[in-house]
Amino acid sequence: MSVKFSKRSLALAVSVALSSQSALAAEEAAQEAVAEEDIEQIVVVGSRAAPRSVADSPVPVDVVDGDELRKSGSSDMLDLLVASVPSFAARAQPISDAATLVRPVNLRGLSSDSTLILLNGKRRHRASVIAFQGGGVNDGAQGPDISVIPSVALKQVEVLRDGASAQYGSDAIAGVMNFVLKDDADGGSISAKYGEYYEGDGGTTTVDGNIGLPLGDDGFANFSFQLKNADATSRSVQRPDAAGLIAAGNTDVGNPAQIWGLPEIEDDITLFGNVGLDIGSDKEVYLFGNYSERDVTGGFYYRNPHNRGNVYSIDGGETLLVGDVAQASGAPRTCAVVPANVDNVLNTQAYQDMVADPNCFSMNQIFPGGYTPAFGGNITDTSLTGGVRGDFNDGFMDGVYFDLSASVGRNESDFNLANTLNPSLGLSTPTEFDTGKYIQLEKTINFDLSKGFDFGLYEPVNIAGGLEWREESFEIIAGEESSWKAGPYADQGFNIGSHGFKGFGPESQGVNTRRNIAAYLDTEFYFSDAFMAGAAVRWEDYDSFGSTFDYKITGQFSITDDWSLRASHSTGFRAPTVGQANVVNTQTSLINGELIQTFLAPATDPLSAYYGAEVLTPEESTSYTFGTVLQFGELFITADIYSIEVKDRLAQTSQIDVEADDYDDLRAAGVQNPELISAVTYFANDFNTTTSGLDVVANYNMEMFGGESGFSLAYNYNKTEVDSVDVQDDGSVRTGPDKVRRLEEGMPEHRGTFTVSQSWDSFGMFVRANYFGEYWAVHADDAGPGGWNQDADSAITFDAEVSYFMSEHFTFTLGANNIFDQEAERIPDEFNGVGGQYYESGPFDYNGGYYYGKITYSF
Fold first, then answer.
1. SS3 of residue 326 by DSSP
2. Exposure pattern of 369-398 as b/e (b: 16+ CB <10 Å)?
3. Number of C-alpha atoms within 13 angstroms, CB side, residue 766?
């Protein structure tokens, strides 16, 4: 793993989910320790007591400094972290509805919303996007949008790889990631970078900068920006059905008809600010936040002009779906049948006679070659956190550290759809739609206290406690009327709403809000120089489903000065998000070679309730970790085994077919037009899992070749087993065997990196090898038996970078990711029904090798 264990880099406290109640005092103590002597890296992650070295941490922690993060061709924070933390994964999303706009991530094989994200020790708000097609493990996940955080703004990233809900609250089942912003009061940098894939597409231009300014005598104001534009990629081949249409003379079919690749990103702008000011009396006020916005456009599935259901046909392509204008007004139907089971329906006399009749029409008249919707969105992310912290220095509170803060975060996704239609409107339909918005808004107030007490033990006992109030809301704003309206031809079998992503209607619009309060108590005891133990408890109450109580105990025993053992045990929870409990959406999946339009309904909706949905409850977890730390001179090694049991895991169910026999009952329950819904899905507490694994990290520094050399190795083994799934009264299951297999085998069990770095006065370089083990590859959502899936082989990719320090201020860098263009798992020809070359579910970028150049000016 490319984790730089430099002897002078410091880690700010991840602190508490309630806030970073001891961050300031811990940071100051850490800085004093470094000033006194040259010691190993200091961290406070996972503890509220005094700072300690990595070797003395009772829980496994990775600290990746900002410079190390920038050693990658990508400017996306997700890709940067994948290259640095082996237990962290984020796959590309070529055709995944809203997940294309905000990619979901994984830590230790759990869903993206099982990892708590902090910024400067404060809880980061969620993205408004929910990953409706999240590659199995992330189906239905709603986590924060990490990609908006630019590496140029970061001092470091701290990754706590341990269950920590008792310390930090909901979402910390897999661990905690804290993004620490730069706090320099002087200096800065500006850089420009361009890169593209070996195949000549995906060109990305990035300009970023950072500046530190003094604020008074003892304060700072640090600001960062990033501007980025990225072209789309295509790793497509022509679909067989599209090729057949072209061969038959249909000149309106695109080549390729459907794109598999990364989305286009335009006008991606991010601004971050971090301000701190000493106000005297051992107190500091602080303020930090961001504004980020980008436009993203991705692809969808191709709609065949002969057989796409409820657009071109309602009988599987035997006949064309023909609209009758007179019938829509109550008159008898007069339009003749147009056979569609031919090579090219446009050339048939029946079709030409239909077009000549002003009373009859088909969607072929708008899109004669079929169509591929372009799904896009404008993503806006803003946050602001402010507070005061320091020491009380008189009265009965003398010596108590406090932190009082308030945060607000907002993420808005404004969806749009182009190159599509609302078939129920007939030939008057628009082909571009504003389909509506999701808005996630979170507000948090924290108050935390901490003090050391002398109980006669080896060191004072640190006792910390605090309170939190939090409000989370999820809002749906309706799209334009044409995106959801049931037009005059809906009764003739034409699809309602913008096809591919139906707009949110007035019945879906509204705001849902949840509030919760929490209290925690955390303490650590040093019984001797060799033995430390800690404990934490947390109570949290939600106004929607009640309260939870969780605990954590940790311990570390030093066998020698260079060898210690550590362990932890904790319980945890993850509350269902307000979005998961209330979201409404229409999505298109490819199942057994057929496009299925699925309606996602809240668990309380009559449609989902008819098929077994129940009110959502929190996930509950039990975690165990046992590890060892060895340090011999410049060699540093940690190894930790872990087990995470999660009960009542929350996820989006597999598709449940809406049968014709159910239509009458569904209408009686209040469901409109059930005949136009192929399948339904909803969120449910549906299965239990056990995730176990091993993390190994090793680092070694030495002088070699007249410069400084560094070697780092990191390895992660991770295995998830589905222990049980919820069985319905009729014996059916909502989480089918295909999804179980994706959960268990969809990501490699083995992942490792080995990095060699070398630096001289005028040059610096590194080479990184990335190993990805075998996994079960799935293409186009088709995970079922006989679908487009297979066991994929392991692979190794290599990254390399060389920097030339032209002067004190200028640095020029050339590098490449996947430098030998290691090919992703290729789809066999017999599986190529939807035009992709590579399985989209792979653990590394299927677009191939990527090269880049960058010039940086530092001051």
1. helix
2. bbbbbbbbbbbbbbbebebebbbbeeeeee
3. 25
Note the pLDDT of residue 18: 29
Asked whether 567 and 626 are in contact (CB, 8 A), the reply is: yes
Domain 46-313+369-858 has CATH 3.40.640.10: no
Measure Cα distances from 821 to 71, 194, 796 in Å.
18, 18, 10
pLDDT in tens, 556-609: 999 998 999 999 999 999 999 999 999 887 765 555 555 556 778 888 888 898
CA distance linking residue 661 with residue 576, whole number of Å: 33
Query: Which range, 50-59, 387-396, 792-801, has the best average confidence (pLDDT)?
Result: 792-801
Tell me the C-alpha distance between 293 and 733, whole Å.
41
pLDDT over threshold 70, residue 732: yes
Instruction: Report the run of H or E that residue 407 belongs to, with start and end.
Output: strand 401-418
Share of the chain above pLDDT 90, in %: 62
pLDDT at 3: 36
- DSSP assignment of 448-490, as one string? EEEEEE--SSSSPEEEEEEEEEEEEEEEEEE--HHHH---TTG
Domain residue limits, the chain: 46-313+369-858, 322-361
CA distance 345 to 352: 9
Of 135, 163, 138, 151, whose CA–CA distance to 72 is shortest?
151
List the Cα angle 32/182/53 in 5-degree steps.
Answer: 40
Q: Residue 630 carries which side chain, given as an amino acid letter?
A: L
Residue 148 three-state SS: helix
Q: Are strands 763-772 and 531-542 parallel, antiparallel or unpaired?
A: unpaired
pLDDT for the residue 738:
83
Residue 793 burial (10 A CB sphere; 0-12, 13-18, 19+) = exposed
Local structure of residue 729 (DSSP, 8 states):
T
3-state helix, strand, coil in the chain (%, to 5): 15, 45, 40
Q: Which residues contact 489 (CB under 8 A, 6 or more apart)?
A: 323, 328, 423, 424, 425, 426
Q: What is the pTM of this model?
A: 0.89
Handedness of CA 842, 843, 849, 851 (dihedral sign): positive
Q: H-helix or E-strand containing 763?
A: strand 763-772
| Strands (E) located in 168-324 | 175-181, 188-197, 204-214, 219-230, 264-280, 283-299, 323-324
pLDDT confidence of residue 786: 61
Task: State both tokens at 403.
Answer: 């932190």
Query: Which pLDDT band, with edges at 50, 70 and 90, does 798 fall under?
Result: very high
Give 186's DSSP letter.
S
Sign of CA dihedral 23, 24, 28, 31: positive
CA max distance for the chain: 98
Cα 452 from chain centroid (whole Å): 38
Residues 6+ apart with CB under 8 A from 37: none
CA dihedral 278, 50, 162, 411 (to 10 degrees): -10
Taking the C-alpha atoms of residue 429 and residue 427, their distance in angstroms, rounded to an integer, is: 5
Strand 563-574 to 546-560 pairing: antiparallel
Cis peptide before 305 (omega within 30 of 0): no
Long-range contacts of 544-547, Cβ-Cβ distance < 8 Å, separation of 24 or more: 544/514, 544/581, 545/575, 545/615, 545/616, 545/617, 545/618
- Name residue, tokens 């950072």: 210
- Please list the residues that pair with 652 across neighbouring strands: 683
Looking at residue 75, its pLDDT comes to 64
Q: What are phi and psi of 310, to 5 degrees?
A: 65, 10
| Closest-CA residue to 66 (of 157, 5, 143) | 157
Q: Say if residues 124 and 144 touch (Cβ distance below 8 Å).
A: yes
